Each structure stands twice: as structure tokens, then as C-alpha cells.
Amino acid sequence: MSDIDDKPTPVESGEP
Fold this sequence. Notes:
Elements: no helix or strand
């Protein structure tokens, strides 16, 4: 889950 660590929004949720 280090890929989404840089993003404030969870990519798995469907957010870009």
C-alpha cells in the first residue's frame, strides 16, 4: 500500500 501512501485519497476506493 506504499503506492497510495503518497496520495491523500485511497486509490482503491476509486479515486484518481
